[in-house]
Amino acid sequence: MEILRRNIGYDEEFEDSPEVTAAFDRALAVIEEALRANPSSEKAIQAKASLLFRRDRRAGRPAALEILQKVQADHPANRQVAFVIRKIERPCPRCSDTGFCPYCRARGLKRYLGFERECERCHGRGICPACGIL
Hints:
The chain is mostly helical. It has 2 domains: 15-90, Serine Threonine Protein Phosphatase 5, Tetratricopeptide repeat, CATH 1.25.40; 92-134, no CATH class. It has 5 helices and 2 strands. It has helices at 2-6, 18-37, 42-55, 57-74, 79-89, and strands spanning 109-112, 115-118. Strands 1-2 form a two-stranded antiparallel ribbon. Helix 2 runs antiparallel to helix 3, helix 3 (42-55) runs antiparallel to helix 4 (57-74) and helix 4 packs antiparallel against helix 5. The longest helix has 20 residues, at 18-37. The radius of gyration is 17 Å and the shape is globular. The mean pLDDT is 84.
């Protein structure tokens, strides 16, 4: 994990490394390609909104909400969109809206008596169990 490799503290603000930024750019390019092939694909549109939000929660929130609200207007029967909108609209109280697991401090591991074990709350992923997965 990038956070462990760079030894970033849980409460410490940081910028993504060039590798992480490039991974987000590649993922966005793939989603855009899928949308060019099928512009009305609800799943691709939701994936784009999710990616924009996860890339930068503060700056991506308005763009993600705009995309999702358009999908909801076009497809009112899609309950998943309403669920995702609620998750994005309200900052997560568990992790202070960082997206990382507060119990293991985004490491995916808990240390107890000198031994490390997988965090039982996030299942070793380091992602907030409440909001980290859209």
